[in-house]
């Protein structure tokens, strides 16, 4: 690459003081020569690699009967045909919504004062609180927007696609109408942009870290599995698959993404908590029963909840009301 381009983009930079990753970052931007194209291409590739890379382990787990003991809805295992249909829909949204819009990200980011091609990277101490703020903002944004998508018109024409699977699986995290991808995706990117607008202190590598963690959260929440080592069993206010799986099964409740507190504060987890209490009480009453009998009981309770969800879905679609207790956020 021409030395002049290094000098133009990184005047006075001591490249020997940079880490290996920072040096590769510099090489990427200089090699492409156009920051807009370099950022757009990197952003798109990052999303695709992380999304499908994180989903593949769940596809493998779904194919192995050994893991059924931890599957929340063990009777509903996605078929290869369903996985492929889901993949096609996800790719369609990625190429029709994400790819055209992603080229606007670099100009918008720079206009707001975000560092993009610059090095060195910020420290983990700097990035950690920023990422937490993005989690907090996105969670509340999703909590409000998700409920709106459960109203009649928006549900019938947009969000209904995402609810095709009452037992979600990893790939289905972004199985949605392109309009929903745009609406809920706004919560992921608006947090960093607003933060940058007010602070002028944000590097795009922090945004990438946030997006990677957000994708992991979304895919894991749709995985359909609850392991003893799942994060919500360690951090009680984390949502996880156990929390979100109920939303797909029952249609109602649990509208947030990462944290449980908004649903608890506004009471949009009442049916979920009632269901968990019924399961706990039933298991206690059958503590001497066989594993098969307990499993049948759990399946019976799930079927009851799902039937109630089918009724709630029809009501939401026909009347335009929320399929659960609603809240008004001032």
From TrEMBL:
Cellular location(s): Membrane
A biological process from GO: lipid biosynthetic process
Major location category of this protein: membrane
CC annotations in GO: membrane
Transferase found in the keyword field: no
Coiled-coil regions, chain positions: 272-307
Keywords: Coiled coil, Membrane, Transmembrane, Transmembrane helix
A family per Pfam: FA_hydroxylase
One GO molecular-function entry: iron ion binding
Residue span(s) of domain Fatty acid hydroxylase: 132-268
PANTHER family (UniProt xref): STEROL DESATURASE (PTHR11863)
Protein name in the entry: Fatty acid hydroxylase domain-containing protein
Protein source organism: Candolleomyces aberdarensis
């Amino acid at each position: 690459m021409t030395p002049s381009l290094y000098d133009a983009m990184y005047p006075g930079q001591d490249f020997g003081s940079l880490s290996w990753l920072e040096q590769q970052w510099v090489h990427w931007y200089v090699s492409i020569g156009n920051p807009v194209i370099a950022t757009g291409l990197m952003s798109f590739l990052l999303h695709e690699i992380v999304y499908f890379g994180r989903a593949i382990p769940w596809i493998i787990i779904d194919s192995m009967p050994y893991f059924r003991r931890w599957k929340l809805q063990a009777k509903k295992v996605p078929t290869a045909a369903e996985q492929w249909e889901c993949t096609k829909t996800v790719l369609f949204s990625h190429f029709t919504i994400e790819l055209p819009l992603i080229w606007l990200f670099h100009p918008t980011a720079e206009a707001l004062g975000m560092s993009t091609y610059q090095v060195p990277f910020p420290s983990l101490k700097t990035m950690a609180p920023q990422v937490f703020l993005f989690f907090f903002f996105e969670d509340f944004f999703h909590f409000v927007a998700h409920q709106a998508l459960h109203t009649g018109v928006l549900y019938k024409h947009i969000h209904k696609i995402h609810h095709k699977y009452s037992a979600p699986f990893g790939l289905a995290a972004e199985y949605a109408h392109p309009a929903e991808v745009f609406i809920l995706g706004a919560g992921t990117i608006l947090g960093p942009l607003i933060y940058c607008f007010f602070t002028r202190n944000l590097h795009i590598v922090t945004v990438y870290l946030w997006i990677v963690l957000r994708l992991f959260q979304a895919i894991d929440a749709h995985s359909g599995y609850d392991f003893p080592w799942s994060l919500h069993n360690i951090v009680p206010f984390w949502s996880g698959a156990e929390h979100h799986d109920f939303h797909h099964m029952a249609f109602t409740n649990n509208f947030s993404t990462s944290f449980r507190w908004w649903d608890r504060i506004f009471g949009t987890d009442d049916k979920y908590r009632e269901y968990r209490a019924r399961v706990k009480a039933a298991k206690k009453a059958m503590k001497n029963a066989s594993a098969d009998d307990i499993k049948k009981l759990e399946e019976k309770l799930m079927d009851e909840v799902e039937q109630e969800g089918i009724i709630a879905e029809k009501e939401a679609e026909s009347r335009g009301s929320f399929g659960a207790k609603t809240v008004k956020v001032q």
